[in-house]
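S.,

As promised, the PRP run. Input:
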Amino acid sequence: MSYKLGEVILSRDTIARRVKELASEIVADNGTDNGLVVVGILTGASFFLTDLVRELPEELDARIDFMSVASYGDGTKTSGVVRIFHDLKSSIEGKNVIIVEDIVDTGLTLSHLLDILKSRKPASLKVCVLLDKYERRQTEVKVDYCGFRIPDKFVVGYGLDCAGKWRHLKDIKYVVEE
Ligand code: PRP
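Predicted complex:
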């Protein structure tokens, strides 16, 4: 099956405005007196994370770390068992941590990731996702900050890919069958 790009679902301007609002929400909740460890889940979230952290105020001690994970299943379905390819560089014990994801779909990856990171005893652990494909949820997962709730359709751009393609698009677009 081959795919082509469809309509824009979220333009670069819409994304930028929402990213600013999310940063304000995070600062309103957490203040600037305590530090924040922002954990990006590679690869998709790297675009969102770098825009988000640049909207945080200078006086906030924000640190950035990344994890690379993949959830395993039978090829078509994710099992939610997460394998870590690249772990955090620093300990999160006693730190205020926020996980940044590009998309939550079944919720299995995030749910497993939360278990892993909780066991490392952070002072707090929150979740910020850009996109929530809420119709596909298989397990309940608490999302503290959400950019946009979107329908169950294939989207690419701003970090999201189709078999590795189209991550670099500035806008988020639908993908349609050719
Ligand atoms: C995406 C996304 C989440 C996961 C969400 O990652 O970044 O990690 O899928 O799916 P779930 O809620 O059904 O578990 P992907 O495996 O596509 O990796 P990528 O970021 O490298 O593209």
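Strands lie at 3-10, 36-42, 62-73, 78-86, 96-104, 124-132, 145-149, 155-156, 172-177. Residues 12-150 form a domain with the Rossmann fold fold (CATH 3.40.50.2020).

- D.
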